[in-house]
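User: Hi! I'm a student and our assignment asks us to look at how structure tokens line up with a sequence. Could you show me two examples?

Assistant: Happy to help. In each example below, the sequence comes first and the structure tokens follow. Example one:
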Amino acid sequence: MKLLVTGGAGYIGSVTTAVLLKAGHDVVVLDDLSTGHRDAVPSAATLIVSDITGAGAVLAGGRFDAVLHFAAYSLVGESVTDPHVYWRNNVGGSLALLQAIREAAVPRLVFSSTAAVYGDPQQVPITEDAPVRPTNPYGASKLSVDMMISSYAAAYGLGAVSLRYFNVAGAYAGLGERHTTETHLIPLILQVAAGRRDTVRLSGTDWPTPDGTCIRDYIHVADLAQAHVLALHAAVPGHHRIYNLGNGVGFSVRDVVAAARRVTGHALPCVPAPPRPGDPAVLVASNARVNAELGWRPQRPDLTTMVADAWAFMRGAVAA
């Protein structure tokens, strides 16, 4: 297939691009490089440096079989302090992309959504039928795009799949996390091992969990990318399918610290810190639907493997 990957210079977008190329697809990456990296785009892909408004011209210039849409801002805290940017980029940009897809008669769309649409869930593991109650503008912006996609599928015959990620970790083929503003737990812990931070901050130590720290579901980025390949073939004209992507297993913050100690050999001193406002105690995905309908299941579910791949990337090695 000929594919357009928006946001393909970012962490998840670049890994997915590499996996798509390995599967034999022809990939064009559209990215404005505001948060992505030029050298993260695999050499076999064509890079077009532009924001999402440039997608219309790209799609009009050649017959594309599908779009994979990763281009979005994703910092929860920033979305609270500057929501305008999130509504303008995540929602306004996605609406422009949907219209460009319609005008170019592109038949398939795979959208990078998020578990943040569920907010603070009442039950875990979280299924796709759980109430959607985002607690911040980032999650609300992603939910708005999901709703727009549903309407485009029903009205215009678009075949679409939204993949709602839980916590993504690891590295693949020399591609990993490089964020100017880092908020994710595993790279923050590894920065302590690398000497770039002094301590690991435990955001809350008296949560109603076995060890008092939050529990999260982690998924290896290569497993996540493989789900996008399957989703391409699962897009049915006129239908919008939604799948949660996670391991179905939760790990506490202390579990992640212990895994990082095993991998790095570093003591990783920890200090208690106040809980982050709005954080739920437990977020774990049910992946039963994506397993039943797409045949997807994690191939790298071990937390130590994810941390080891992320550590190898941080140290400049290739985690293939």
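Example two works the same way, sequence first and then tokens:
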Amino acid sequence: MRDPVRRNGSSDPIPVRAVRTRAALSAAFVLAAFLAGTAGAAPAEPPVVVELFTSQGCSSCPPANATLSILADRPDVLALSFGVTYWDDLGWKDTFASPQFTARQWSYARGLHHDDVATPQMVVQGRADTVGQTPSEVEPLIRAAKADLKAEPSIVFRGEHVTIAAAAARRPADVWLVRYDPRTVQVPVRRGENGGRTLPHRDVVRELTRLGAWNGSAATFSFSRSADPALRTAVLVQAAAGGPILAAAKG
């Protein structure tokens, strides 16, 4: 029996067998190109967590806010801005501040062996801090934190659940859910040290919730969806009492 034929617009018939052969070769070339492009690709590294403690009433804070905004563009960094409350009685009440965030900064003060708290302060991976008014101040701390990332347990989001893998070195820790606004929010400040200025804020933390404890074994935690779809979600696994961040992931 002759092979079935189809035409390509000319008078010459093309055997279907030949068409199939060409299609198979084409698919093989596409697959080879895909594998060549992905063979050297590595899974994304977990981010280094950079936390800024700031206040709209602090005249020294805008440069640190600008530094955090630059860091927020980096895929290898989870940048978080926490508004603190102890400037609120000096003429301007910070619109993002929370006593919970002030308490978090005090926990770091104890963990990092500081006698007091001040703004601006950038804490990198819960392990070291600086004022953070320029990116060059923070970069060495980010590089140092990256050296420890390979030992972190992995964190995987599945819908409204997050799973933390087991770790070889078991260390009790807290699991924190963070919701933050990735947009740049312009805040007109009418009084206080920054009175008359409009200050940009980015990656402002709006929710900080403890999901539970982690003891080094694999564990899954559930959480509810955010009421504000514009907010992004992250999870931190952190040693208690202002200790270092052991793992972090963006949702």
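Here is something you could point out in your write-up. DSSP finds four helices and 13 strands in the chain.
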